[in-house]
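name: query_chain
kind: protein
chains: 1
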Amino acid sequence: MENEIKIKIDGLSFFYNEHLVLNNITANFPENTITAIVGPSGKGKTTFLMTLNRLWEGIPETRMEGRVEIRFGDRFHEIYDPSYSLSQLRRLVGMVFQVPNPLPMSIYKNVAFPLKLAGLKDKKFISGRVETALKRAFLWEEVKDRLTDNAFALSGGQQQRLCIARALTLEPEILLLDEPTSSLDAGAGTVIEELMLSLKDRCTILMVSHYLDQVKRIADTVTELSDGKLLKYPNI
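structure:
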């Protein structure tokens, strides 16, 4: 049985100043799958991900046209409708960037930060969520005895898993990953790949990658972003 559609995009165009980056994209993405987005550098792949959680809205002189609908619960929501809560969207659609970006604080506080930002104060609840997120990010066993250490003491691969754990604390339904292994060595990259495969039973994952071998190993669907269009990639 095919997975239900999670994300529906209709007529999506995106502009930096008057430069057209995304050109009238229409696409559907099924839930609980990994979709890899490939294509030339600098052609809008990261921008495309940011249209799915409205992260681009802080960038000057940008604009978007079209519709993005995501199914949360039993119905689709137009995420650009003024009545739809941006904070709710960011809780349900997490994003992890190419270069790990831990906050200048302890390992524990890094993972707890989104919960504190959301106004949660129950220490026992927060502690449980932090442990669960670190376990899901394959990091708990490595850091459980050093949670008060500065996050910058972790290796690059550990920092990336920490950032994934931080994104998981709010239990998002969609995870956007922008080249999550490009700054890591092969061993650390393999761990991240295994992590992504373990997460898709709970999350719908969209991942930008330049590594076709990686894409072949873990992606259910591959699309190519080229000349502003999103097209099915041949023969992966």
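note: The chain is about 35% helix and 30% strand.
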